[in-house]
Structure formats: C-alpha cells, structure tokens
User: What shape does this take?
Amino acid sequence: MYNIGMTKTVLILIAAATLAGCARTTPEQQVIDDAAEALGGAEQIQSATTLQLEGGGTNGDLGQNRAPDTDLPLFNVSELRHTIDMANRRARRSMNRVDADDPTESDSQNWGWDNGVAYNIDAKGMARRQNDMVARERQAELFLHHPLPLVRTALADTSTVSNRREEGGTILVDITTAQGEMVTLGIDGTSHLPVLARSMFYHPNLGDSLRETTFAEYQEVSGLQLPARITTKVDRYPVADLTLTRQGVNAAAEDISAPADVRSAEVPAPVANVTVQEVAPGVWWLAGQSHHSVLVEFSDHLELVEVPQSETRALAVIARARELRPGKPLTKAVVTHHHFDHSGGIRAAIAEGLTLVTHERNRALFEELAKRPHTIVQDALARNPREARIETVADDMTVKDAMRSMRVFHVIDGTGHSDSMLAVYLPNERILVQGDLFNSQGPNPKRMAIINTRFEQLGLQIQRHVPIHGAITPHTEYLKIMRSAQAAS
Ligand SMILES: [Zn+2]
Ligand SMILES: [Zn+2]
Assistant: This one.
C-alpha cells in the first residue's frame, strides 16, 4: 500500500516537472536557443552531420620559446584539413607545419579522435593510440571547440546547461556533456553568434590549464553561419591562429573512424627505461630513451644534470641515481633550459627534495611551475607539496670539493634555440654535457660553430660529449662534422 502511494506521488511530481519544463525555458536554455537561431536554426544544425574545414595559418610551439618571457616560436601551417563527424562524435585534423624562422625545420601532424579514443597517424600511415589525457584534450581541441558541434551537443537532451553570466558584451553558459565534459560557450550579446569556447585540461608542465578558442569572421555555408577564423590560447600562450578558406557541410567523404587495431589497442601507459653507463669514475650517463641525464658524484653528495621529459622519467632517473651511491644524498638537479621537454621533471625533482639549478632567467617560470595547481591530475608534487628551492647561474659557476670540480655555464646562445641555456663541463674528466646544442643523430653545423666559439672563450679542453640527446661523441668527431659542414657551405 505504502509503496504504491510513493510511486503515484513520484509520477505526479515527474509529470509536473515535465510540464514546467515544456512551459518555461531556463535563461541558460535561452542562450543555447539564441545561439542555435543565430547559427541558422536548430533544424539546420541537427541535419548537419559532418563538417569539412580547410585552410592554414600559424601554430605556436608551446614550451619552446627562446626564453620564458618571450613569445612562442611560430610554425606556418598549410594544408590544414579538419573533418568533424558530429553524428558519430569523431574528428580528424591534419596539417603541414614549417618553422617560421627556419624553413628547414618542418613536420606534419595527423591527429584523430573517435568518441574517446585518440590516435596519431605517422608519415607512413601507421596509427598509434594515445593516452586518455590526450583523448580528453582532443575532444575539446578537435571536436567541442567549434560552434557547430558544441551547440549541437548543447541541444541534446543528455547535456545540461548552467550558470548563465555576462562578461563585457559576451553571455556565457556552461555546457556539461553526457560524457561529463564541461565546456563554457560564450555568445555575442547582440548577434548571439558563438564567440568563444573554454575548457580546462591537464598539461603535465602547466597543470590545470585553460584552453580558450575564439570564433570570428562568420560566413554563410549551406544555410549555416560558420566562423572562418579560429584562434586558440592555452593559458596565456597563443597557440593557433587559423583561417579557413573552404568549408563544407555534409561534404566529408573520408572515413575518419579510428582504425580497428587502434580501438582494440591498450591505452599506452608511460614507461621509463633507464640505462646506466659509468663514463668516468663517479660519473654516470643515465640514458635509454630520447632524453638522457648525467649523475655526478662529489665527496659527500650527488648532483644530477637534467630531470627531463616527464614525472615518470624523472622519478625513474632519480631512483636509479640513488641506487648507484646509496650512501650519499642526491641534493641537486641542474636543468639545462626551460623547454618543456627538458623541464618536464622539475616538479617531481622538487617533490623528491632536490634543489634546482638553472639560469637566472628561468627562475620566475620555475617558481610559477612549482606553485601551479595540479588538481585534474595530482602529480608527485601535488601529492607531496614542498617549497621549491632554486639556485641560479648568471654566467659561469664552479662547484668544487676534494673529489670533483664541475663548471656550470651560460651558453650565451646566439643559435636561436634558447637564451637561458646552461651547459656543464667536468674539467678533470674533460666531459661536456649539453642539451639541444649538438645531437650526433642530427647535427646542426651552424649551431655547433656558434657554441664552439663559446667553448674556446671559456678555455674548455673538451675530450668527450656526454649529451642529453644522441650518442657519446669524441670532440674530435664534433670538430670534424663542424668543419666539413663549413667547408661545404
Ligand atoms: Zn630545447
Ligand atoms: Zn631537447
């Protein structure tokens, strides 16, 4: 009896709520309705199942600026092709990129996202699955941060819209998708056209980061209004400015579903492979992947050069270093430069109690990176908060005790790579440790000549390069490569 009564009450309440829902549109829903109307109407939006975008522009290289306080280096983007399949929740984007300052540096990107599965396709057409963090980022970057799929998603019954507010002339609402992803949509207060999309994502170096995409230069395409200019900022960094020269609705012919082997592949987990080679008594090269480190033993402590790439790599290198001399504390990590692939382990190093040693121009950035919130993913430092200890080098510094002498110097670059770069020289062992100035696997002769001048100025008697990238190389070989390139030009 009691149960039946309850059921009746609940049904009546649901019926009342449904009626109220039909009768009254919330202010949030009104924003979506207005945006849909401005784009060409809900019906027109629903019948658009695919979108094909082509164009070009520029792409900023995040974390690779010459100094922490300078603009990002730019790539010129051409042959941009971005396909969005709204009906099946898929997207793929390919482009060619050429370094705006150095036309010999170029690459191409071919990235896909298929309903939660992210993959990259290499130049040979091989597709490789990416991790879930990348998949989450791609959902925003390739799919939701465009007015058409975003408003289409907001119109779905399974999405919720909340928190209407205004910012200058822009009206904002938060859209939460059926998958639990939240994206803020901003529409122009007058035209009601979408002007921005914002969402938070996790960046290993920057932690919790805001991605903001802005939409401008609307034009009519098959009865819909679509933006021809799309710009993106990550945190304070402009990372893309793209102009679309061709747009097509329901014109995509290409199959952009994830290949079956990508779908069935396991989500890749980060792995660190650390090899150990003693290059001189008490000096070890910790290699194994793309970015190496060097461990240097002193009378009563150990110091590392480079904690690169990622937390996984840095923690593995630190653990291996401690195993080599368990009796001596590992106290410091020299960080050659601020580029994100080289400073990817600094938060892990701080969490492990290491003092960072870097060029003075990197201090403010490293202090900021140490303090930034990492709540979307709790990294080692978020789990074990510690105050960052940072020592800086302006020009040239020597650490010396009874066992060892180690010189840490500013490279005074001039190569265009980094203005706040340090290298390390061990005078007794005649070993040079550097990152990104010389790589035996792809030597840059111009860069080699510039830094060789600096070596001569400092009076270094280098015998061997024990590098952060590439193989251990005798300095005679270095000079040979440099001189043959000079002779050829
Ligand atoms: Zn670099
Ligand atoms: Zn590098």
Summary: The first helix runs from residue 2 to 23. Residues 146 and 286 are 44 Å apart (CA to CA).
